[in-house]
TrEMBL record:
<protein>
    <submittedName>
        <fullName>Carbonic anhydrase/acetyltransferase-like protein (Isoleucine patch superfamily)</fullName>
    </submittedName>
</protein>
<dbReference type="InterPro" id="IPR011004">
    <property type="entry name" value="Trimer_LpxA-like_sf"/>
</dbReference>
<dbReference type="InterPro" id="IPR050484">
    <property type="entry name" value="Transf_Hexapept/Carb_Anhydrase"/>
</dbReference>
């Protein structure tokens, strides 16, 4: 289904195919020969989303932009089943495998591969032709690509990236961080109350 959100309607190229159970909401532009499969959600939460040409968004994948972090996906990109992209820039010819997670402010270079259940964390730049192995985490600046069993190193790099502050504008050290975060984010998401079919 197509939805108008915050006064913006999706713009879909005539050669793109959107499955009837997919949701495309707001300021979204989908290029030529794209395929958006069943259960996929592409939602512009105050910032635009652009998909280039020949992008495949597979079943149950999520692509979400925010006012602070729009999404741009280049040409010939495959976004695997259950993958999630939030406020990131994806280059051309990128492979995001099943279950991958790409967070706000991330940049993925051309021809990179993020393999099954791997993560490209907040504000992380993955260079051209890079590979994040199955289940591994790309995090930080300078870039670290680490297996999940190196949790302490990942956590240290994540702290420097400041997820609550960068994404939600909430000080991570405040005692009621989750109260502030959920109330602020909830108010933002409530803007969907006025959405209507496009």
């Amino acid at each position: 289904m197509l939805y108008e959100h915050l006064g913006a309607r999706p713009r879909i190229h005539e050669t793109a195919v959107i499955a009837p159970t997919a949701v495309v909401s707001g300021d979204v532009e989908i290029g030529a020969d794209c395929q958006v499969l069943h259960g996929a959600v592409i939602t512009a939460e105050g910032g635009p989303i652009t998909l280039g040409e020949n992008v495949i968004v597979m079943e149950n994948a999520i692509v979400r932009a925010s006012s602070a972090n729009p999404v741009h996906v280049g040409d010939h990109v495959l976004i695997g089943p259950g993958a999630s992209i939030s406020g990131a820039v994806i280059g051309n010819e990128v492979f995001l495998a099943t279950g991958t997670r790409v967070f706000n402010g991330a940049h993925i270079g051309d021809r990179a591969e993020v393999r099954i259940n791997a993560v490209v964390h907040l504000r992380t730049t993955l260079p051209e032709d890079a590979i994040v192995p199955i289940g591994w985490v790309a995090v930080g600046d300078p870039l670290l690509v680490l297996p999940p069993d190196r949790h302490e190193e990942i956590a240290a790099a994540q702290r420097e990236l400041d997820f609550p502050g960068y994404v939600f504008g909430v000080d991570r050290d405040t005692p009621d961080v989750m109260v502030q975060l959920t109330e602020r984010y909830g108010r933002s998401l409530a803007r969907h109350a006025d959405d209507r079919p496009a």
